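Listing S7. Sequence submitted for prediction.
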Amino acid sequence: MFSNIKQDLVYAARMLWKNPGFTAVALLTLALGIGANTTVFSVVESLLNFPLPVDDPERVVFVFGSNPSRDINQNPTSVDDFLDWREQSDTLEYLVAGAGGSFNLVGSGEPVRVVAFNVTAGFFPTTGYPLSLGRPFRAEESEPGGEKVVVLSHSFWQQRFGGRSDVLGQQITLDGESYTIVGVTHENFFFFNRNTALYAPLVLERGQSKRDERTTFALGRLKSGVTVEEADAEMKTIAGRLEDAHADTNEGW
C-alpha cells in the first residue's frame, strides 16, 4: 500500500512540474480558499471574544442570522437580506454592515499589505466612539460611485504617518486606486481585530451577490428605550417575511 502511495506522489509531482501553469493556478486557488476562510474565522473570533470599545454598550448589538433546523447560529447574512433588515427595522437607530478585507498600500513609505475593515456609512456613529481626527463616512460614500475615502486606525496613523495632524486630505493608493484620508480613530478603538490598519466604505447593491451567500456582518444600535428582546422579536418577524418571499434561499432562516 505504501509503495503505491509513494508512486502516486512521485507521479503527481512530475505532472505538476511539467505543467507549471496549472500548478500555479491550483496553488493560487488553494491559497485564496484558505485565505477567505481564515478571514471569516478571524472576524468571528475577534467579534465574539473581545470586549468592544463602544459607547453606551448595552445599546450596541450584533445582528446574526440563524437556522435552527441546520443547527446554525450567529451566522453572517447576505447583502440583500441586510438591505431588507435595514429598510424594515423600526427598533434600530442604526444598522450597518461590515466585511473584513485587505489592501495593498502604496505611498507614504514602503508598499505593504494592510488589514482593513470595510463598513457602510453610520458605522462610527453606531459604535458611539469619537474619532481622534476628522470625520466618519458620509452616506454617499457608501453608494455606488461614491468618493473613495479611508479612516486610519490610531496605531497605523502613528506608525505609518508619524501621528501628523496634516494627514487629513492626504491621498494614498490602495489596490491601485486613490483614496483620501478623512479621519483617524480614537487611540482606544479597534474593530475586526487589533491589527486593523484602516476602515473603508463598504458599497452594497441589491443583486450584487446571491441571497444565500451569507458573508456580511451586521452591527446595530438600539433606539432609546428599545430592549434587545423587542428588537429580536422584530427581526424574527422580518425574517419570516423574507422566508415567505424567498423560500428558495431563506427557508428556516
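Caption to Listing S7: primary sequence and predicted C-alpha cells for the chain studied. The longest strand covers residues 92-106. Confidence is low (pLDDT under 50) at residues 1-6, 20-50.
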